[in-house]
UniProtKB/TrEMBL annotation:
It comes from candidate division WWE3 bacterium CG_4_10_14_0_2_um_filter_41_14. GO terms for molecular function: DNA-binding transcription factor activity; RNA binding. It is found in: Cytoplasm. The keyword Cytoplasm applies. Keywords: Cytoplasm, RNA-binding, Transcription, Transcription antitermination, Transcription regulation, Transcription termination. This is Transcription termination/antitermination protein NusA.
Length: 341
């Protein structure tokens, strides 16, 4: 191979694979040494280590053992097949490592992707440089997926134990909601507004608690946007999932009241020891406070970290019964049960 051809081929592989030319040359050296060791084990076992030299300009291979040139006649032809296999494997490993390194910096980010195909319960997602996997557990039960569909995903983890598709992405993680808002809201990007907490039931509804770090900035208004255009963009990306934007407060009483919106509630009595809150609600606000199948009070409990008991004006107590971790202990807050005082 003439000088310009070898250099051109080296640069082309480096460009296509996204790895450096030096990495490719090192892979070639390992391949040639492996081929020599396999075909000439006695010579390779001698005291002096065999060192492979590759001329980066011409591609010429020379094997040196100490000061002695031990390159066998026709070595390139004899070892070509073995070398090819090792080279391909080495390039694949280098390419894989380059992708892993790149996506280490994207962990926790929301990135665009395209659904490639459905395979054994998981979707393969084309992210450009690589194909990620979205397992069944990271999918949303009522979202419609199809081949070649473009959507945004949350880069959740890198699992190097997987034989391929090491990048795990999610559509169900609450962090996806946060990331989508960060893409849309300049005030979040500048940290004039911060998201303090998110409670999500993927595919149905999310509650997002926000606060302002700058005087004069309305955190809820910043998230919603004029005529709701900002929040609608996120809702559209999540295929209709409802978004409740509420004002965060360092007062537990006020935070719980806000979290139960759109319902207007009355007196809130908190027991810090058990992380429970008793909330009095009028009859006309009762259904709003509880929500369909208890969803509103359930999400409010998850958002605030308190088990919330809704008490009607007639003395009926509505208690959520799902599992909520509070101070390391599990409390029920799933469905809603009704009792009389």
């Amino acid at each position: 191979m003439v000088r310009t051809e070898f250099l051109a081929a080296l640069k082309q592989i480096a460009l296509e694979r996204g790895i450096s030319a030096d990495e490719i040359v090192e892979t070639l050296k390992r391949a040639m040494l492996a081929a020599y060791t396999k075909d000439y084990p006695e010579q390779a076992a001698e005291n002096d280590e065999v060192v492979v030299h590759i001329d980066k300009e011409t591609g010429e291979v020379t094997l040196m053992q100490g000061s002695k040139d031990v390159t066998p006649p026709g070595f390139g032809r004899i070892a070509a097949q073995t070398a090819k296999q090792v080279i391909l494997q080495g390039v694949r490993e280098a390419e894989k490592q380059a992708v892993v390194t790149e996506f280490q910096g994207k962990l926790g980010e929301v990135v665009p992707g395209m659904l490639q195909r459905f395979e054994r319960g998981s979707w393969l997602v084309d992210l450009g440089r690589t194909v990620a996997i979205m397992p069944h557990t990271e999918q949303v039960f009522n979202e419609n997926y199809r081949n070649n569909q473009r959507l945004k995903v949350y880069v959740k983890e890198i699992d190097e134990n997987l034989p391929r598709n090491n990048i795990v992405v999610s559509r169900s993680d609450a962090k996806l909601v946060e990331g989508l808002f960060e893409l849309e809201i300049p005030e979040l990007q500048s940290e004039a507004v911060v998201i303090q907490a998110i409670a999500r039931e993927a595919g149905s509804r999310s509650k997002i608690a926000v606060a302002s770090t700058q005087q004069g900035v309305d955190p809820v208004g910043s998230m919603v946007g004029q005529r709701g255009v900002r929040v609608q963009t996120v809702t559209d990306e999540l295929q209709g999932e409802k978004m409740d934007i509420i004002l965060w407060s360092d007062s537990a009483v006020d935070f719980i009241k806000n979290a139960l919106s759109p319902a207007k509630v009355g007196k809130v009595t908190i027991t810090e020891k058990t992380k429970t809150a008793r909330v009095e609600v009028s009859e006309d606000e009762l259904s709003l406070a509880i929500g369909k199948e208890g969803q509103n009070v359930r999400l409010a409990s998850k958002l605030t970290g308190y088990r919330i008991d809704i008490v009607s004006s007639t003395g009926e107590i509505f208690t959520p019964n799902d599992e909520l971790e509070i101070n390391g202990e599990v409390t029920n807050v799933d469905s809603v049960t009704e009792t009389k005082e």
